[in-house]
Amino acid sequence: MLLAEKLKTLLYIIAQSVPFKPNYTKIGRDLNMHRNAVSDLMIWLAKAGLINILRNETQGISLLGKVNKIYLSNPNIAYLLSDTEPDIGNIRETIFFAWLKATHTITASDVADFKVGKYTNVIRILLFCMHVQKVSI
Fold first, then answer.
1. How many CB atoms lie within 10 A of CB 132?
2. Is the dihedral angle over the CA atoms 11, 12, 16, 22 positive or is it negative?
3. What stretch of H or E contains 4?
4. Which of 14, 31, 37, 94 is the most exposed place for a label (fewest CB within 10 A)?
5. How many CB atoms lie within 10 A of CB 22?
6. What does the buried/exposed string (b/e) look like for 91-127 if buried means 16 or more CB atoms within 10 Å of the residue's CB?
7. Domain ranges of the chain
8. In angstroms, how far is CA 65 from the centroid of its own chain?
């Protein structure tokens, strides 16, 4: 299988199960490649702007390690590549992550889907973002 075909297959796998909790060993087995190469492909897809990678709030060398979840960067990709209708909750999470990622640091949370800055409560996150963007209701 060519590298381009492996990238397409990987993107298809992600689109089928967004938000995607990656198991690089299993994916590597499915794509007939080493788990480290799968990690490289994920980085390439992220740099290309096709996926967003959600990591735990860590610093230093552990920041390079485990990925918490992977989201598509655009919900239209889910509609394009999915065999079934994408879950609306996953679409909402994808949009939320993509929009806030542009201006805020987003990490995984133990009590919510995301942690934006120091906030995990959705209402507080939205109020924080409106305050930062100086948007009035």
1. 12
2. negative
3. helix 3-16
4. 37
5. 21
6. bebbebbbebbeebebebbeeebbbbeebbeeeebbe
7. 3-133
8. 15
Bridge partners (DSSP) listed for residue 70: 20, 53
Average pLDDT, rounded, for the chain = 80
Quick check: 54 and 115 in contact, CB under 8 A? Answer: no
The residues, any chain, with a CB within 8 Å of residue 57's CB and separated by 6 or more, are: 107, 108, 115
Percent of the chain topping pLDDT 70? 80
In angstroms, the CA 85 to CA 63 distance is 34
pLDDT of 50-63, one tens digit each? 999 998 876 655 55
- Rg for the chain, CA atoms, rounded: 16
3-state secondary structure of 68: strand
Structure confidence by residue, pLDDT tens digits, 119-136 = 666 656 665 665 555 544
Nearest Cα to Cα of residue 53 among 17, 10, 97: 97
How far is Cα 124 from Cα 136, in angstroms, rounded to an integer?
15
